[in-house]
Write a structure and sequence with these properties.
alpha/beta, Rossmann fold, eight-stranded mixed sheet
């Protein structure tokens, strides 16, 4: 049975090619993608394209754009077996994380990919990324269900759970890493899937739902040696923020000074939700490991476990938009909703 896929172009480096006359990089007509990547014909799949107009640089991505992207997916969900989203790399991990929480009852692959070099350049990494993403988006299990019914990022032979990724390198073709969770598939001569690592629905056939109300009143407070009280308090006691992502040292450690802990205590008493994530690229927050972390836990700071800042931020956006009850939000933050954290 032939597979149908929708390739969605949002913008980014991958969709650029050099103008023959000016030599400048300009977006090309993405409906002509097969001309640029003729290898796609060999799949025999029905591949349709949808391009945002205007296209958007990933640095300009906003939650409003995520809502529009989710609507495109929902409106076309029944028509296609899978989706490939071409996206700029700078905020790809944020978009992948947001979509994973915004899309409920997902049963089809949504693969985000892009490139470090434009597709029109001779040494581009874009062609391989597109070709492999298409093949993964079309892949089925023996029972006919999707092989990878998740929001993923594919880059340079690796398939990652999207909400586990960070952009790791601005220059290397392997731009992304998923340091706290193994890859869902590796692409070489064959595509080797790791089914035991993939999130499959507990029951199939549910209707896709989207959470399109996002509350972005979240701030990030990164702790560093020498941080002054005014800097801490300006974030903890901002009138607009409802939640704080607290980026701490190591396994969740922060200053033990009385004034810092008093500020945290007061912020929580004022109703702020504070989630503790580590500044380290690998490892998990364990607030029981050291006295400094234990002090935060005692005050009511929530562990972000091994979640990334990107995933934690987007999770708060979605939950705060969905629930008015702060206790419900806190409860959900402690749960792995889309495989974004490992509970220890």
């Amino acid at each position: 049975m032939s597979r149908s896929l929708l390739m969605i172009y949002t913008g980014g480096t991958i969709g650029m090619k050099q103008d023959d006359k000016t030599k400048a990089l300009v977006p090309f007509d993405f409906s002509q993608i097969v001309r640029e990547v003729p290898e796609l014909k060999k799949f025999g799949y029905k591949i349709d394209t949808y391009s945002f107009d205007p296209v958007i640089d990933s640095s300009d991505i906003t939650p409003t754009f995520w809502v529009e992207l989710c609507k495109v997916i929902k409106n076309n969900y029944k028509k296609y077996d899978g989706f490939v989203i071409l996206h700029g790399t700078d905020t790809m991990s944020y978009t992948a994380s947001a979509l994973s929480f915004m899309l409920e009852n997902l049963e089809k692959p949504i693969i985000l990919t892009g490139s470090q070099l434009p597709i029109g350049m001779l040494r581009t990494d874009g062609k391989e990324n597109i070709i492999s993403s298409i093949e993964i988006a079309a892949a089925k299990r023996g029972d006919g269900k999707a092989m990878v019914p998740e929001v993923c990022i594919y880059f340079e032979s690796q398939l990652y759970r999207g909400n586990r990724t960070i952009k790791y390198n601005a220059e290397n073709f392997r731009a992304f890493r998923s340091v706290n969770y193994q890859v869902l598939a590796e692409v070489g001569i064959h595509i080797k899937y790791n089914p035991h690592l993939i999130n499959y629905p507990k029951s199939w056939g549910k209707q896709l739902k989207i959470s399109d109300k996002l509350d972005t009143n979240v701030a990030i407070l990164k702790i560093y040696p020498g941080i002054i009280k005014q800097a801490i308090d300006s974030i903890l006691f901002s009138t607009w923020s409802k939640a704080i992502v607290l980026e701490t040292f190591g396994s969740g450690n922060a200053p033990t000074s009385r004034e810092f802990l008093e500020s945290i205590k007061k912020a929580i008493k004022n109703g702020k939700i504070i989630v503790n994530v580590t500044q380290c690229q690998a490892g998990s927050v364990d607030m029981k490991a050291y006295a400094t972390g234990a002090s935060l836990e005692k005050l009511g700071v929530i562990s972000g476990y091994d979640g990334t800042t990107e995933a934690t931020l987007c999770k708060l956006f979605v939950l705060m938009g969905k629930y008015s009850d702060k206790e419900e939000i806190k409860k959900k933050m402690k749960q792995s909703l889309r495989g974004e954290i490992t509970i220890i």
